[in-house]
Amino acid sequence: MAQTGFFGDIIFEVSADLVKTWESLRSKRKAVYASHELAGGKSKLEFTGVELNELSFNVRLDARWVSPREESDKIQAALEDGEPRVLAIGGKPLGEYVLQDITEQTKYTDSQGRALASRLTLNFKEYN
């Protein structure tokens, strides 16, 4: 089994028998500038720092390997507890992050309406 990352106690991994990993990693970094108005001229910008890093990625949950409902519930609980956790991607710890929001899309269901496959989009913000 190969661990592809983690968020606290939520492990992302992949093997011949299990697929619970991330995909489509997006990272957002932003510089912050103050604008100073000048009489009779153009404003001047002053670099004041950088905003906290934001990351997002998708997680595919497929009933062939995991229980989509159970795994989704674990991730929802991480959002609801609001605690910062260490986020690691590809074996590299990135620091402490909070889970800001989750978008869940159920792709397929069985005849009783239980999710067979779903995709979660997780959005994280650096905790400082």
Instruction: Name the overall outline.
Output: elongated
Please give the share of residues in helix.
10-25%
Overall structural class, as computed from helix and strand content, comes to mainly beta
Mean pLDDT: 89
Biggest sheet strand order reads: 3-2-1-8-9-10-7-4
Order of helices and strands: EEEEEEEHEEE
The main sheet comes to: 8 strands, antiparallel
Question: What portion of the residues fall into strands of 2 or more residues?
Answer: over 45%
Q: How many distinct helices?
A: 1
Topology, number of strands = 10
Question: How far apart are the termini?
Answer: 32 Å
Our Rg estimate from Cα atoms comes to 19 Å
**Poorly predicted tracts of residues:** none
Structure description:
This protein has 128 residues and is mainly beta. The chain has a domain at 19-29 and 45-85 and 97-126. 11% of the residues lie in helices and 60% in strands. It has one helix and ten strands; from the N terminus they run βββββββαβββ. The protein has one helix at 68-81; strands at 2-7, 10-14, 19-20, 22-28, 31-36, 44-50, 54-62, 85-89, 92-109, 115-126. It has an eight-stranded antiparallel beta sheet with strand order 3-2-1-8-9-10-7-4. A two-stranded antiparallel sheet has the order 5-6. Strand 8 and strand 9 form a beta hairpin. The longest helix has 14 residues, at 68-81. The chain is elongated. It starts with a strand and ends with a strand. The mean pLDDT is 89.
